[in-house]
Design goal:
Chain lengths: ~110, ~110
């Protein structure tokens, strides 16, 4: 079993929809959680960085961590075609070693 | 903004060649990392470095080595390239402590 599990999709939604992207993890030592966005033929771009449980909002993006169920979520409101990309979740227990999910490919249809 | 620059976007080499991939960051970050990214496998850590001339093995170091002679530059070396090293290679950097990593745009390496 991988330490961070993520459904690879693809996930297709109509423009304007609320998108929910999810990951689960198995390592109880993970305390730092990240979401990256990766466009085709580009490197991952940091979207959200959170510590421990709770919510963090940045514009149309909300990251949510539930440590009791080991569940990580990213919500995208009012999705746009420009949001079409692969979204990687990641987790770390500190000391810079980061474990990544395999990424979920999202397509937002105009 | 953090800028991590990888010297080549696309590279084609032959089996047995010694291959150098270069990465430079402009934010004075102490930590630098090399990953490879493959479909269905995600990002896997090859090597990382916490300081100049220091290096640590990641999860898949076999067949690779690294060099960090200057703080801003981290090189990945494929000692004798093989076809199973065809992949997307990503470099990242970060500040010390529990700070997020920032990535370059990757080098897509094909070994023929």
């Amino acid at each position: 079993q991988k330490e961070v599990e993520q459904d690879p999709g693809p996930l297709s939604v109509p423009e304007g929809a609320i998108v929910s992207l999810n990951c689960t993890y198995s390592n109880s030592a993970f305390q730092y959680f990240m979401w990256y966005r990766q466009y085709s033929r580009k490197g991952p771009e940091l979207l959200m960085y959170t510590y421990s449980s709770g919510n963090k909002e940045d514009g149309r993006f909300t990251a949510q961590v539930d440590k009791s169920s080991k569940y990580i979520s990213l919500f995208i409101r009012d999705s746009q075609p420009s949001d079409s990309a692969t979204y990687l979740c990641a987790a770390s227990g500190g000391y810079q070693k980061v474990t990544f999910g395999i990424g979920t490919k999202l397509q937002v249809i105009p | 903004d953090v800028k991590v620059t990888q010297s080549s976007r696309y590279l084609v080499k032959r089996t047995g060649e010694k291959v150098f991939l270069e990465c430079v960051q402009d934010m004075d970050h102490e930590n630098m990392f090399w990953y490879r990214q493959d479909p269905g496998l995600g990002l896997r850590l090859i090597y990382f470095s916490y300081d100049v001339k220091m290096k640590e093995k990641g999860d898949i170091p076999e067949g690779y080595s690294v060099s960090r002679e200057k703080k801003e530059r981290f090189s990945l070396i494929l000692e004798s390239a093989s076809t199973n090293q065809t992949s997307m290679y990503l470099c990242a950097s970060s500040k010390p402590g529990n700070q997020p990593q920032h990535f370059g745009d990757g080098t897509r390496l094909s070994i023929l």
